[in-house]
Design brief:
The structure is a homodimer of 231-residue chains. In chain A, 35% of the residues lie in helices and 11% in strands. Chain A has 231 residues and is an alpha/beta fold. Chain A has one domain (7-218): HUPs (Rossmann fold), CATH 3.40.50.620. In chain A, α1 packs across α6 (172-181) and α6 (172-181) crosses α7. The first copy, chain A, is globular. At the A-B interface, β3, α3, α4 and α5 of A face β3, α3, α4 and α5 of B.
């Protein structure tokens, strides 16, 4: 009798479109997934409700880690700096959060070692993205190298950490098409950086713009609820 | 007129002997230091009182970051697993905490970018140490490579992150001698992994053993208060 070994994975789940699709991809490849979200007092904490709903819909265990974030003042997502609403130029925008993915992946690494999971999935994307440096393939590769030198289980040869980035070279259109095929319920996802109180998307921030453009390009109706009058 | 540029640094300060010496080394080299400690519900949280006292004595700003640590159950320092008292064999001991230095350095990275500090000091040591993989030079080098790909300021050429490990190839004896020359008040430091309620050192854990051995070898009196009857 052939017994397929369990492939365990930690999946970073922000509650957005990309991470929901990443979770669906990981599940479709047979990984036993453990979803992980972060409460870093982000302006769009509404995404954590979405993350919980997505994990529940997928039937996977989910934990939210509270981050005491010391560089909050540096980003529009964690301070009073205005979120840009007129598109971003060819530079890294003020929504950049210092070392965010490094902190997130570090916590994922600790959980992965505890779970004896050799796989971490993260929905970073280097095509239709905001230009954040910690979403690029060279960063991810460097993190993976570091991770395998950091963990006891890796050094002892019991675990090899692999950081999976299934979306990294896909356009937003392709991500939405892929997720739709895999049955992702995008009405559960939240993308907006600057939502109205009930989580209604502003429709104008960088994240909303990329989302809307992706759905339009895919010819699929975006189920997000946008603020009245959003451009 | 020559103006020496300010060299800013984030210094990881656990409150132990090594990190207190590291802070003294960084200050002696002219760095403007910002000390950082972590409350990860460690068994030896008493060390945080020491960290505060050391930072105050050195006159440097200090912040303690609360870590919601998801792999707590895996380590004797963060769970009910007994701290070994009979010395450790040639293996990584149960006091190992998954991804601890990676999480700590990630937070330091965020603070460094906010402060525009290109330097991070960490008191890791690969001679008289517990065998933790994230104290080795190859790990530190890999973290530094990753860090310079992660940060906006690094990618834009405004900051280059350097991880300084001034103690990495020193014996405990040499560390104590160095700190003594620099005027470190070791009575403020706390090393024990398993202290009695008032922070009195057990005298028998791995960390107490390394400390006592170092002071003896240096011919300097250890100002730590040990539990009566400690071997």
């Amino acid at each position: 009798m052939n017994v397929t070994p369990i492939k365990k994975a930690v999946v970073l789940l922000s509650g957005g479109l990309d991470s929901a699709t990443t979770l669906a991809v990981a599940l479709s490849k047979g990984y036993q997934c453990h979803a992980m979200s972060f409460d870093y007092s982000q302006r769009h904490r509404h995404e954590l409700i979405s993350a919980g709903n997505i994990a529940r819909a997928a039937g996977v265990p989910h934990r939210t880690v509270r981050i005491d974030f010391c560089a909050a003042g540096a980003s529009a997502l964690t301070s009073d700096i205005d979120v840009p609403k007129t598109g971003t130029e060819n530079e890294i925008p003020v929504t950049y959060v210092p070392a965010r993915n490094t902190i997130f992946l570090s916590h994922a690494l600790a959980w992965a070692e505890l779970l004896e999971a050799g796989n971490i999935f993260i929905g970073v994307n280097a095509v239709d993205y905001s230009g954040y440096p910690d979403c690029r393939p060279e960063y991810i590769t460097a993190f993976e190298v570091m991770a395998n030198l950091a963990l006891k289980a890796a050094v002892e040869g019991k675990l090899r950490i692999r950081i999976h980035t299934p979306l990294i070279s896909m356009s937003k259109k392709e991500i939405i098409e892929k997720g739709t095929v895999l049955g992702v319920n995008y009405s559960l996802t939240h993308s907006c950086y600057d939502p109205l109180p009930e989580g209604i998307a502003c429709g104008e921030c960088d994240s909303c713009r990329l989302r809307k453009k992706g759905f339009t390009a895919a010819g699929i109706t975006d189920p997000a609820v946008y603020a009245p009058g959003a451009k």
